[in-house]
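Re: beginner question about structure tokens

> Can someone show what the tokenized structure looks like for a real chain? I only ever see the sequence side.

Sure, here's an example I had lying around. Input first:
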Amino acid sequence: MSPDYRVGPSAEPLPDAEAASEGDMPWSDEPEKRESLVPGVLHGARLDKAVVAFVPEFSRSHLQNLIERGHVRVDGRAVTTASRKVSAGQLVIVELMPTPESQAFRPETLPLNIVFEDEHLLVLDKPPGMVVHPAAGNWSGTVLNGLLAHHRGAASLPRAGIVHRLDKDTSGLMVVGKTLQAVTALVRAIAAREVHREYRAIAHGVLRTDKLRIDAPIGRDPQSRIRMAVLASGKPAMTDVELLAHDERFSALRCTLHTGRTHQIRVHLASRGHPLVADAVYGGSPALGMQRQALHAARLAFDHPASGEALRFECAPPADFVAAWTQIAAAV
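And the corresponding structure tokens:
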């Protein structure tokens, strides 16, 4: 009989989890300083134009930001006005503070709720509000940052071993590889639809049938870069939906993924007129106490990439989701 792991919000990381120290990592917190004398050809030029000439590998907007923050000195005095004119022979010192993007792939000690771990992989229960991979607006505090601090091997793996993602406001289970072999095997298993991923969702409206298969391709919404949409030109996407409970206004659902497109459950349900509760991107409104999209990755099952052992995991939803679900179930 294969192992069946049931975990709740109080699950703790393994006590012997290896944490990498700063000395083991190739980055430094000391910013580089670049010194240059203003040449004759830049006499009378704006400071930001001169700085761009001295440090061409950085964007002008980033260098202007450094000027405004006091990281550029002219003849020993900080100058915070990008339009300030410089003169030939002046000494300009630029303190090259890193861009947010360059700091993204750094280890941070974060409370990763790890529910299973061995030398090949780990499974974690991601809380709502935590971003999985650094991106614009979220360059730190992500699952990736936490993984880099959790074990040394993450730094040498693509995306620190992350093989699939959950949206920021989606809670629940995700698997991470700890070796390149495990990452490769897990990616192939997901592509081959051999990883079982089951979600709980709360949607607006009441489904007309107890079971529904949504087989509709998904692609980037041509009207909005932050949205996905059902498009004929999109990639194949399939979701099985089962109605578990409902009241007059909402449906409590079990959703099983057969593919893993971005925002798949959210897009598929919204396309059928049932956006998730509190999913503002796809037309859902806050309700039942939910202020974030009502989606939880409840079950995860796959074969261990090294041993072949069948693994199954199940985790309870966060308190806000449980409270919302209970209100619907009580109406049955």
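Each token stands for a local structural state, so reading them left to right follows the chain. DSSP finds six helices and 16 strands in the chain.
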